[in-house]
Amino acid sequence: MPNKDSDISLKYLNLLSEKHPSIQAASTAIINLTALLQLPKGTEHFLSDVHGEHEAFEHVVRNGAGSIWRKIEEMFGDALTKPERRNLATLIYYPELKGPLMLRSVADRDEWSRLTLIRLVRFCRSLTAKYRRETVRGFLHSHVADTIEELLYDQQGVESKTAYYQSQIDTIVATGSTLTFITTLAELIQRLAVARLHIIGDIYDRGPGAHIILDSLMQYHQVDIQWGNHDILWMGAAAGSEACIANVIRFSLRYGNMETLENGYGISMLPLASFALETYQDDPCELFIPKLPKDHNFTSQEIRLLAQMQKAITIIQFKLESQVIKRRPHYLMNDRLLLDQIDYARGVITLGGVEHPLRDTLFPTIDPAAPDALTPQEQSVMDKLLQSFLNSRKLQQHTRFLFANGSLYLVHDGNLLYHGCVAMNEDGEFRAFNVDGESFRGRTFLDRVDRLARQGYFDIDNPAQKQYGMDVMWFLWCAPQSPLFGKEKMATFERAFIADKATHVEQRNPYYSLRDTPQSARKILAEFGLDPDRGCIINGHVPVKVGKGESPIKANGRLIVIDGGFSRAYQKETGIAGYTLISNSRYLLLAAHQPFESTHKAVSEELDIDTATEVIATYPRRMLIGDTDRGREIQGQIDELHALLHAYREGLIKEHRLD
Ligand SMILES: O=P(O)(O)OC[C@H]1O[C@](O)(COP(=O)(O)O)[C@@H](O)[C@@H]1O
Ligand SMILES: [Mn+2]
């Protein structure tokens, strides 16, 4: 029992009594919450660097990173043939697509329906064991909740109920409700299989479907996001940062991936296209030919236009970035003022005292006397693009979702989740970031830039502060000390204009070598108030070169990198096609996925993703909800309810309802 003189104020207890208006209501809440703590913790999945590969993402979420297939094998391994199990799995993953196909193709619809419903109920029932009945009911639409609940909690084998149960199945079929119930059961299975999803950054860029992933995450029952550099870039663009807008467009054009910009967010490329056509009409723009997938369907004219647009926006980007760097000297990025280092007459650039010939010397919009000044036409293009970004309802909705459900890092159940790094010096100390005479490092630095990024989006009453925040969002995209980037430079200019590959190298922050040592990981865990002996840092951002023998598990298990290359651009480097880290009530598992073909093939050919799963850690006992952060929150609620009960009983608060 909590102590009587808890410091919970009477005012707060009065508020609480509105929600629990009687002694019995408060007691019932205590009973339910206390029992909840005894349930096994929910299964959580961690993903990162999905980079717009929406079909692969959808599949690994729908198939529970392979856990649903394993359970089907376990439950139906003897009763069903492998083709029947594959069919059932595909139906569970894509009920809305596979269900209609099956109903049209099976010989005996009613028989298939009955059998399938019974199997899905059985499968679903096995997953409900970890949930309160009320929670499961909360996942169901009201028009089917009663029936589903009766089917799920049917007392197996009780003579009197068998006919009752069978009749429900038969009547579902007879009333033509099979598809509704198959879909409901399948979606319930997907929900029950994964209690919570953690996305550790880089939803956007390179692949075509970031906007589709965001829509899907907005519908997901429990999700948190730790922003990646690509995410904060799009968030900065949505906030109205011109430097971020230019980068977002350049990156999309680089991959010829206009779906998110044009179809997802309705951003018109017309102003940029017409400006590029006119300004670069005689320029082959060869260095800016987009990196296109083999199966692209662009015409040669379209590819040429994309190249002209990419060059046009790249020059605008460099100018805008120079402006940011000059107005934020504390970013210490003057080495990136590259336009000022170019001898336009000779077509060379001097970097670190070394002269490099430029592979492209056509800069029709650059005035050597003021290289980072936008021409009136460039400014007009940026003005129109800015309006397009600000007025895109879907982009603004996704951005607000990322702010509401996301952050720079997350401390969760003793673990620390962030996309990139915590900037360190060679000696393993946290790198200080100095501004206005103040020094920020480690956790205080991450907290500061998290808040400044939010100001960059929300602080519309204070334009100067908002601009400061928007510049921070650009800083987080590409600055050496950014916790989302962590490389000495983003060598976009060098990779485009300089042949010498030595200038293309992006030296990583010392964090990336120190992260292999347990003491650095332990230092970071302690910095964030976590147990250095048991906590785990979970990162994305830098692809794990699995094919070359690199392990995702670093620092004796204190740090795990889960960027397994969902992005097709990185699969050569990683040798796999993405990781899912799985934390359930017994184990910490790492699932390594093989490449995913397509949703169409997954449904029509019943192809699944081959996933190899390895146990990373086995918990000493089954972890309960009571062992988690959520459990600690619930315990707090229980303590408050005991105080309320006490207040009712001591006559300090009157009952509002006579239960
Ligand atoms: O070759 P691409 O796709 O342009 O990517 C190169 C750029 O992307 C980065 O790797 C950042 O993107 P990631 O966070 O996805 O790695 C930069 O370091 C690099 O300059
Ligand atoms: Mn990244």
Automatic annotation (TrEMBL):
Pfam families: FBPase_2. Keywords: Carbohydrate metabolism, Hydrolase, Manganese. The keyword Hydrolase applies. GO terms for molecular function: fructose 1,6-bisphosphate 1-phosphatase activity. Its EC number is 3.1.3.11. The keyword Hydrolase applies. GO terms for biological process: gluconeogenesis. It catalyses: beta-D-fructose 1,6-bisphosphate + H2O = beta-D-fructose 6-phosphate + phosphate. Pathway: Carbohydrate biosynthesis; gluconeogenesis. Its cofactor is Mn(2+). Belongs to the FBPase class 3 family. HAMAP family: FBPase_class3 (MF_01854). This is Fructose-1,6-bisphosphatase class 3. The gene is fbp.
